[in-house]
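Record 1 of the preview.
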Amino acid sequence: MKRTTFYLFFLLLSFSYIQAQKNVSNEDIKSLIQTLKQDPRGPYFRIKWFCDDGTIRDPKDPCPERGGKSLGIQHATYRADVLALAEKRSVYFGQILSATAIDEFWNKKDQYSRLKQYQLGKYLESIDDGWILRKGQYYRGAVQIEDEKAWGNTFYKTILGNDDVLAESYYLIRQSLLDIPHNEDSNLAQEIRSQSKIIADNYTPFMDLRIKIHGNPDKSDIIRVENFYDEHKKKLPPSLMIEMNNLKQSLRAYYKPIDFTDLSSQLNAVNDSDLKTLLLDSFNTYQTPQEVSYMVKDIADLLCHIRTSITQVESPLDRLVFLDLSTELEIILMRESNSWQPREVDELLQKIYTLSLATAGTGLIELWEWETVDHQMTGLIDNNPMSIGQLERYNQFASRVVGWSAATVKATYNEVVDEYAGFEPIAVGFIDDRIRSSVALALGNTITTLSKFLNEEAGITNQVLDISDQSGLKGINPGYSKGVLHVVQTEKELERANKNDIYVFQKPPSDLKPVAGILSVSEGNLVSHVQLLARNLAIPNVTITDEIFQELKQYDGETVFLAVTDKGNVLMKLEKDMTNEEQVLFEEKQRNTEMVTVPINRINLNEKNVLSLREVKSSASGVTCGPKAANLGQLKQIFPNHVVEGIVIPFGIFRSHMDQLMPATQGSYWYFLTDTFRQAETMKNNGASEAEIQDFQLNKLAILREAILKMPLDIGFVVDFQAKFQKELGNYVGNVPVFLRSDTNMEDLEQFTGAGLNLTLFNVKDREQIMNGIKKVWASPYTERSFTWRQQYLTNPENVYPSILVIPSVDVDRSGVIITKNVQTGSNDGITVAFSRGAGGAVDGQAAETRIVYSANNQLINPSRQPYHNRLPTDGGTNKEYNDFSNPVLSKSHLEKITRMVGEVQEKMPQYTSNDYQGPWDIELGFKNDKLWLFQIRPFVENKNALYSTYLKSISPEIDLDKQILTTTQLN
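->
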């Protein structure tokens, strides 16, 4: 029987399972995992011989031999339900490499999912007693390690010959070396973390030592573990006695003296090259005792040399040797860096620089990213003395490197981890494990030392509960609030987000409902809709580290007070610890909450014709249409070559449709809406709670929303729309893909931005979808998220009128947002630029490339770590394309065009808009084939109250940025 026929046979066996489980749910997979854990064969069915001639034989009928060598391999086949799971959910359990085609395993189209699942599976096996192989790990012959190693070598020989693969996936390839068998090495660092976790999970007294091993490992851990073992061995069950002995053995092996002769011998079979000579010279130097700082610096250089020179090595197998040496050198660097204890500020800065360089050498950050901070750090490090301001900037640059490094790990593995977390919660620890196994851990610990020194000298303090590393918090938006703290593990927990509570995220979702405070590991980008809303509404917003995220879990459900100053320092305390001043402050804040009234005195509901974008100007905003259309129409006149054609459906057409009789009611759609608010007001006067009133309104608005979606469109409007569409967009409805953008009269008010609250439909081409899309946009102000955000701040939320801007799709290569001020500092000494690849970048909360652009240069705040981007095909809809991070989103040419456009905007907008607005602008734009397209320009709205709060000013330290510190100053 041919091998492919055999697998087809098993797929047919699983057909009934697939039919019964057309959509394999997470609950189904959870149940399967429990079954596999108890199965003596785990995920496998039976063992077979797979012969080179394509035949498959039973275990007792081996493949023929030639010259004493078998012409085939032996391994297990998969259970039918495991095969079905792979077929229906692309989830691969118990992967046998020698049974896997290399092009399926290394598949860029699925973002290398099978490779990442293989790595995640190995991690789960290491921390959960074999996981799905709990009993199956003893199934003899299921996996032959010799065949797995042979496959691994063939795999690397195949992919490492491609220079582009190394450039685009350097980090992933180095990480895969730790998991895919191909030599005799083992991943001791992960084994140590896994063994210590297992012990701590089953024996609580070991937890402190486990935290030490995971957070700040060094050679002293050997003595600590041995002492703990001697003290507790009488209390340990036999299984943990074995695990403790395994841990001691792993620690001794990890910290054994380095054999540089062995490292040199690995290069014996490698062809001569400059890289080989460089490594051999260094290994020879290390044979004699060296200052630990010298060795760490030299290894960091070697790591970068390997990365930059690897493509100059011709042989894929030689490249594999160099990459293996790179992983070994990283382990040595991390070990030795823990022994490097700087005594003076200058030495501490040198160590931070060295470890930052090593992140580039190990692929945690891209080489072009390193270049952006390299000259910034070297430009400061040679100064003596250094000012507080200079030290703070140096700390910022280094902290960014840590953040970028962690973001690389998340961007690489998040998609697979999120998939697995739905049915195996312990999978979430994988990303943390990878970060802790990298040089980023040592760098983060070293930066903490500098942060503490700097904060002491500058008088900057964060006071956040009893968090161990207070330097890991940074305020983004000033403000204060009180509410229940929620540490969010999954987005499902946000379905009923409470507007009065404070939320802690790994990353805030782009469609976040109203909340009182935000703490996030990843801020997304500075100008996403969530960030702009937070800034506008004075919602305190803080970035934190992964470690702080974990520590805050113990306070989940507690009521806390949170305050963030404009200097970026953060205060958080339990409600019971609030001072009288803080209690009164919160009460006053509740009483003095500013409400905004949507102006309707100028609105013109008599305009019931579809308008050309060329017909509207900024003066139409809030009169016949919303600010998006009005401003874009104005921009069409100011920048005709940078703005597309378009049409506008004004307020009057929406209102005329709402005046139709609503089915199953006694009145119109509009009456149903206004009567809902009248009833809500009656409920309020009768003493109903806020929650009761909101639930009533949301239920009624859900009914209205569904009715609008079924509303018949007036035939006169349809004819007018089709005619204007053809005239302005050059073809019939159904032949041009378009964006349908909601554009209400409640957006871009002086006190309220309303950014991103209502619906935009992307790249719709089908005629029926366009016509139904009009109704979807009309209904979008009545969604729960849109209503609850504006309900808090509008006195007349019923008077929200949507117009619709219809513009042709532009399949941009990159898109984003510009704020014509420095959002980080609040100053006007630069502009903030946030861009992602593809359409819809930055504004949707993507991990955008963010820069502060000055007149003479620019500063990279965050590189893009968005793993994919949207493209807009001509047949409508969106396609997802995956990114690599080897090049920046914005080139020098793009930045020059952006700078010129900002200059034109600042010069021309006041002239053409006939108002005296002098503040910063919020600009949405994109590039297609290097041509700049403008999509929106509006005033940048931010809340001034938080910036000038007396209380926030009182807890914000006065910092003397010019205070001089000798770099020879001794560290405590």
